[in-house]
């Protein structure tokens, strides 16, 4: 069997309120990664616009077919001959917005898309309050994409906290799992690295996750640390906390089979029921 290797890149960004400037930064980052030898380049969640104001967000958002960032990155994929994974864009979906990832082939054609399943509705100890469901509509379908480079499992940001999703993607054939993100600094400091490594270890898959980093124009602060993790849980590349830039790592897909042979957890899953014992055990509220 021929070797199955490719070079993956994550583009760490600090997207602001100007979609045109964000598009230009993404295009420049993909070109830089391609010059460095990347075959696959991933951008973060909300590549084209980071904006907490619902009114300003809706003022910029279009249907995917008219989105200038998607068009620009499709052309960049054609120009450079690399696969571009747009971590996500905000696109119109009825009276709400879809948080949608796009996978673009080296010929510029769209191979597939994925709408974020899990919406971030939380109240953090810092006082930050997020209600994505007020603006976004959640997806209904997990996505595995067979590509010339690898079989990819597509997820976005908050999805990383739902391990059953990643197991399902791995059981469906995903060799590389992805979680491009716009993670808050507070939650990222506590959990980002652990979650990335855990999802890789549990599934015996690579994790590739480009992230937003730093203080954005709308006032939010994101954690950064775009990461590439191998199937044994080793961090191959980490972009650090705040500055935009590009990280690269070689993806050797033979390591997926090796990790799954060493710890065949995907084969050992068993159906079970939960038995409650004693009056002190109550359902979570």
How would you describe what is shown here?
With 285 residues, the chain is an alpha/beta fold. The chain is built from six helices and 17 strands. Strands 1, 2, 3, 4, 5, 8 and 17 form a seven-stranded mixed sheet that branches. The chain has a six-stranded mixed sheet with strand order 9-10-11-12-15-16, covered by helices on one side. It has a two-stranded antiparallel sheet with strand order 6-7. Helix 5 links the parallel strand 11 and strand 12. The longest helix has 19 residues.
Describe this structure in a few short sentences:
The protein has helices at 19-35, 54-60, 68-80, 163-171, 185-203, 254-262; strands spanning 5-12, 40-42, 83-93, 96-104, 110-115, 121-123, 129-131, 136-137, 143-146, 151-154, 176-178, 206-209, 213-215, 221-223, 227-229, 235-238, 245-252. It is an alpha/beta fold. The strands form 4 sheets. Strands 1, 2, 3, 4, 5, 8 and 17 form a 7-stranded mixed beta sheet that branches.
- Count of DSSP strands: 17
Shape: globular
Mean pLDDT comes to 93
Oligomer: single chain
Structural class category: alpha/beta
> Rg to the nearest angstrom?
19 Å
Main beta sheet? 7 strands, mixed
In DSSP terms (H or I, runs of 4 or more residues), the helix count works out at 6
Order of helices and strands: EHEHHEEEEEEEEHEHEEEEEEH
Whole-Å distance between the termini? Answer: 52 Å
Name the helicity range. Answer: 25-40%
- Strand residue percentage: 25-35%
Low confidence ranges: none
List the helices and strands and how they pair.
Blueprint: E1 5-12, H1 19-35, E2 40-42, H2 54-60, H3 68-80, E3 83-93, E4 96-104, E5 110-115, E6 121-123, E7 129-131, E8 136-137, E9 143-146, E10 151-154, H4 163-171, E11 176-178, H5 185-203, E12 206-209, E13 213-215, E14 221-223, E15 227-229, E16 235-238, E17 245-252, H6 254-262
Parallel strand pairs: 1-2, 2-3, 4-8, 10-11, 11-12
Antiparallel strand pairs: 1-17, 3-4, 4-5, 6-7, 9-10, 12-15, 13-14, 15-16
